[in-house]
Amino acid sequence: MGLAGVLRGKKVRTTVSRKAVAACDRVNRQFVAERPDQLWVADFTWVSTWQGFVYVAFIIDVFAGYIVGWQVSSSMETTFVLDALEQALWARRPSGTIHHSDKGSQYVSLAYTQRLKEAGLLASTGSTGDSYDNAMAESINGLYKAEVIHRK
């Protein structure tokens, strides 16, 4: 038949991850706030377009479920979620706000965590791989896709 196997090369490691120490979980799945800017949740999602994927980041004030910052990007670099954070900071100028996210590399990056600290926000992260630990942000992502992207 003339068939022959092919040997694959070794996997090449292209990224050296920084073992970031993530913030503790200050929310513990209790997505309630008694006043505006007491608790923000953050996450991003992807959207398929005719030319590929784009990513949409949201920062939501839990008190009213209001989106206080958002950004769209063609890449998942940290600057993309930082831009959403900057928009929220400019719009609300909070102090002592808990900022809750998942443990995505963008949210535990040095640049992002330093900016949270500079702004006086208290970082909080849920456990790895558990969407319930950031359920409110995941819910907003789902609503965005259902009501805006896939609406018929």
Automatic annotation (TrEMBL):
Residues 32-152 form the Integrase catalytic domain. Keywords: Membrane, Transmembrane, Transmembrane helix. The chain crosses the membrane at residues 52-70. One of its GO terms (biological process) is DNA integration. GO terms for molecular function: nucleic acid binding. It holds the Pfam family rve. InterPro entries: Integrase_cat-core, RNaseH-like_sf, RNaseH_sf, Transpos_IS3, Transposase_IS3/IS150/IS904. PANTHER family: TRANSPOSASE INSF FOR INSERTION SEQUENCE IS3B-RELATED, TRANSPOSASE INSO FOR INSERTION SEQUENCE ELEMENT IS911B-RELATED. This is Transposase.
